[in-house]
Amino acid sequence: MHGVKRVQYSQAALEAKKQRDHDKLKAYLALSDDVIARKKSHDMSNEAFELTTRLLRMNPEFYTVWNYRRDMFIESLFPQRSPSEVNELLSDDLSLTFELLKQHPKVYGIWNHRRWCLEHIPDGPSPDDVNGYRNSTWNKELFVVEKMLDADARNFHAWNYRRYILATMPFPPPPKSELAYTTRKIEANFSNFSAWHQRSKVLTTLWETGELDRVKSIEEEFELVRNAMYTDPDDQSVWIYHAWLIGNGNYAARLQFEITSIQELLDEQPDSKWCMESLVRYKRLLIEKHAENLGDKKALVDSCLELLAKLRDIDPPRRRRYDEIAEGIRSGNEMQ
Amino acid sequence: MTSSSQLLIPLHVRYIQSLGENKDDLTYHLTAHLRMNAVYWGLTALCIMDHKDALSKDETIEYVMSCWVDEAGAFGPHPDHDPHLLPTLSAIQILVIHDALDRIDVPRVTKFILSLQQPSGVFAGDQFGEIDTRFLYSAVNALSLLDQLHQLDVEKTVSYIKQCKNFDGGFGAVIGAESHAAQVWVCTAALAILDRLDVIDQDTLAWWLAERQLPNGGLNGRPQKLEDVCYSFWVLSSLSVLRKVSWIDADKLTSFILSAQDTENGGIADRPGDLPDVFHTIFGVAGLSLLGYPGLVDIDPVYCMPANLIESKGLRKGWEALPRKAS
Ligand SMILES: [Zn+2]
Which residues form the Prenyltransferase alpha-alpha toroid domain (chain B) (predicted)? Predict the structure, then answer.
């Protein structure tokens, strides 16, 4: 159970609540017993189907009942119907699950049933247009999942579903439109790490397929991140994404440029943990990867150690980590 | 709301005992699909608080066996509920704790579990095909407890986990999904069981995990989210597997977990002031055990079961928790 407050009831309120719950409980148990008995006797009637709808509205986590419903679809409802009727039937279940998701956005069973419905959308409406039903359904799904992400931009069920929809669409939108979607989400809230994550996946694809020029696009990413960093230097989402852009630090010029820019921010915000953390990370990369081109390696080492000592003070919960990194730098330096 | 600086063991033991007595409570019935898991959570919490006998062993085993679905060769979460991998793992864990594995048909359960592996290497939860790295972990854990890991295609299984790895070092529920502490734990623990921790970028992951700790001491499950007792365990157990528990502030986390106790009726909630449940009670108690809280029994963070039991089966991996403090 998440986020349900503990309440102190008065004796009278407790009694009233018990009575209300008692009535609800009686109705729930009667319905649940009925549905389970019908399931056991393999009842595939319309009446049984309607009862599962009622029960799932009361308890959408009852996965055994979703299973029973799916058995009814496969064994009884689909075989008696034309493709257009099957499409309609499934579209009713998509409406039902959308309604349920609005109240229970994090119930696995509802998302799962939705996906099952999609997998059973029939070919049609005609031999010339076999993807017609699927196309209109998938377009609606994209709309539904955007609604869900408008309500909670971090709902990972919704993001996973979104990726699934995009990956299985009969006529997928160009990948660049997904990049634009993440831009909108990020600009609405820089702290939305789910959107940064999605962006990293979309960009990787766009670079691999050549749809975006990697060098140019990465330049734009650094610009976007810089805005976010200046807006809220304490937001770790942005810094984690920045570390991804830097990657394994193969470009010395890039490292040096970012170090300078972060140093400027640190000068303005002298206690910024994430500025210091990132400076240490990138200076270490310079030392490890570009030692041969470094004028003054000792200055870099000293600066890392100084930053780590400061991090240790301003971020005591993680001081052991800073100590271990400092020990690593010291011993690495002695070996050479 | 009164809080406490001590773990209220007798109160939590009574709370767990009382869970089976709430049959006039609607929530009890609405959560029947989690009953087998709940029995495992309750029993494990009791073991860690050294009160294993507070629930009747015979009744527990009878309950587990009443959920056996013979046609499937697996367990449901409750009588008349459909078989699924999650309750099947919980049932096996309960039977191992009670040294009663002889009650089940190991070859048939093994066959059920292996039948759920998909061509990609991930596992489905049941025949309806929902996939998740949680199910992959459940399968690996169960096969290991049944001593049947040799029947698993390890390469295929590990290859799926590898594809779930993100740039932040963490893992998601499926390929492409965002890193999430619960998924990090299941992937890390599965890799530990399979002796494949080399797949993990350990420094990056331990950094991401350490950054889950918030100023109030609690841990969140993803960047910029709220703290929660269950996430605290998933992060902490992953850090134990990576031997980096020292990278967070143990005292502050201990206080946070203790502050989420219901000091009147027992049980631990997701965060202070909320309604407790058995799920957060086990993860709270298990977290405290890893933090070296005095008087508790060691928990194995890979299997989430009593450590001595796992050790006696020869399954202990190289994890490291904080040393037990003297009371
Ligand atoms: Zn929780």
Answer: 10-305
| Token pair listed for B91 | 């049932």
Q: Ligand 1 centroid to A2 CA: how many Å?
A: 6
Can you tell me the distance from the alpha carbon of A54 to that of A112, in angstroms, rounded to the nearest whole number? 18
pLDDT of residue B3: 57
Distance CA B297, CA A149 (A): 43
Q: Note whether B244 and B200 are within 8 A (CB).
A: no
Domain of B241?
201-327
Per-residue confidence at B168, pLDDT binned at 50, 70, 90? very high
Instruction: Identify whether the C-beta of residue A147 lies closer than 8 Å to the C-beta of residue A182.
Output: no
Rg of chain A on CA atoms, in Å: 28
User: Among partner residues B33, B172, B280, which is closest to A63 by beta-carbon distance?
Assistant: B33
Q: A143 to chain B nearest CA, in Å?
A: 20
A234 and A243 Cβ atoms separated by less than 8 Å? no
pTM of the full structure = 0.97
CB < 8 Å to A29, chain B = 29
pLDDT at residue A335, rounded to an integer = 54
* Three-class DSSP labels, B146-210: CCCHHHCCHHHHHHHHHHCECCCCCECCCCCCCCCHHHHHHHHHHHHHCCCHHHCCHHHHHHHHH
User: B314: exposed, middle or buried (C-beta count within 10 Å: 0-12, 13-18, 19+)?
Assistant: exposed
Residue B38 has pLDDT above 60, yes or no: yes
DSSP code, position B19: G
**What is the dihedral sign for C-alpha B278, B284, B290, B296?**
negative
Question: For residues B168 and A239, what is the distance between their CA atoms, to the nearest angstrom?
Answer: 11
Question: Which candidate, B117, B107, B100, B146, places its Cα nearest to that of B303?
Answer: B146
User: Chain B 288-327, CB below 8 Å of chain A: which residues?
Assistant: none
Q: What is the ipTM of this complex?
A: 0.96
Tell me the two tokens of residue A184.
């909108």
Strand partners, B268: B261, B277
Amino acid letter, residue A91:
S
- Tell me if B161 is assigned to some domain: no
- Residue for token pair 């148990």: A29
Element housing A123 (H / E): none
The dihedral through the CA atoms of A299, A301, A303, A305 has a sign that is negative
Secondary structure E strands in B83-230: none
In angstroms, the Cα distances linking B187 to A38, B40, B134, B231 are 39, 21, 8, 15
The answer to whether B108 touches B71, Cβ cutoff 8 Å, is no
Could you give the maximum distance between any two Cα atoms of chain B, in Å? 53
Residues 228-247 (A) with a CB less than 8 A from some CB of B: 235-237, 240, 243-244
Tell me, yes or no, whether B34 lies in a domain. Answer: no
How many C-beta atoms surround the C-beta of residue A199 within 10 A? 22
* Separation of alpha carbons B262 and B277, rounded Å: 10
Establish how many alpha carbons lie within 13 A of residue B278's alpha carbon, considering only the half-sphere containing its beta carbon. 25
Is there a domain that residue B41 lies in? no
CATH of the domain at B301: 1.50.10.20
In the numeric block, the tokens 């976010």 are attached to: A228
Looking at the 3D structure of chain B, how many domains does it have?
A: 1
Contact across the interface for B273 and A5, Cβ inside 8 Å: yes
